[in-house]
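Re: export button greyed out
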Amino acid sequence: MIHIHDLTKVFGKNTVLNKVTTSIDKGEVVTIIGPSGSGKSTLLRCINLLEKPTSGTIRIGNVTITDPKTNIMEVRKNIGMVFQQFNLFPHMTVLENITYAPQKVKHIQRAEAEQKARELLNKVGLLDKEKAYPNQLSGGQKQRVAIARALAMEPEIMLFDEPTSALDPEMVKEVLDVMKDLVELGMTMVVVTHEMNFAKEVADRVIFLDNGVLIEEGNPQDFFNQPKTERAKLFLSKIL
Amino acid sequence: MNLDFSQIVPFIPFLLKGIGATLQFVSISILLGFILGTLLALCKITNIRLLKIFANVYTSIFRGTPLILQLWIIYFAVPQLTGYDIPEYLTAILAFGLNSAAYVSEIIRAGIMAVDRGQMEAAMALGIPYRPMMLNIILPQAIKNILPALVNEFITLTKESAIVSTIGYLDLMRRAQIIGAQIYRNFEALFLAGVIYWVMVYILTKIGELVERRLRQSDTHS
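Workaround output, generated via the alternate export path:
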């Protein structure tokens, strides 16, 4: 479903991603891990072109999104994204946050969008918060609303950029639980995370990046128990 | 002390008409300056070089020359160049609106830059097009932060509007001067005009505070 070939991203003199090649199947859950500054987030952000690759290609389905002729807006409609800092719209209520894009982008009627939003809020356990503003919510609640907001566009792919890194420890679980529900539903997910347990329990595959290079990838059991590379061994010895 | 307010009493209706005359062009100038300033601010933050250069040159010119000079150029130089005898009212609106746009554009540009980058990224990730993103997501947050600076600009414009008296526009200031010349006493009429300017600015300040408080409500809903 997602095919990444020789993806390179350079900021100034800094090569953040260096010829990364991998592909992600439909319904697959992939976690990207690695030390900070390894290019994990940049790789994720290239998939919906929040970062413009310096060279290389990304193909989603039949669409080469790195082709300058491709309409990026059309591509983004199909890719939901959840950010570390939530990025909810602070001047809108929870319900407005979720219904804004479906109405504006997909031209769905307000009543229908609201009904759909309530279903999603129910799914993330926040049905009673529809009239609340983001600053009235805890971090975990904000992140669950952010997930609902992304899902309201009915994307085929969901990208998570360190979704639990800004949360207090006791709120991590509620967000991971929502993400696990999504896995159950067969969503294609790419998750940059420091939650090794999430990677171990639910991921189909782990991608390990260091210094912008894809060092190793494989299923979580193999990766965590018998890493093939010295670099991965060193990394795992520090964090586990 | 030589003070006698009784002599200006017959002229008070004449003076008060100046309030309307001043407010009429000031309010339109504010509106023109705000809309034009917003557009200029958007030009300043785009990646399109030509628009950026245009907006920066515009701002540089209108901020870098005296307002009274701009007013005089529009009033006296436009007829010379085009043969069109531009009325005082239109001159005043243009001079103040165009000038204010330069200042407002800088205020709004700073306001947009201060909105968290994540807001734009979240909107882009949802596939929201540029116009609704700016109008419904970025600008409302920017305006909230820059409201005090905007009100300040409107206050400056209201007060500085008195220089239109130099092209003979019958605003509050000009009327005070005329009354002074009629009765050979200047203090009383000027004093009264000063009080009226102060009241107008005071009301503007209060309106600004009210709007600001309403906008802040989304921060303190709990």
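Strands of chain A lie at 2-11, 14-24, 29-33, 55-60, 63-64, 79-82, 157-161, 188-192, 205-210, 213-218. The button fix ships in the next patch.
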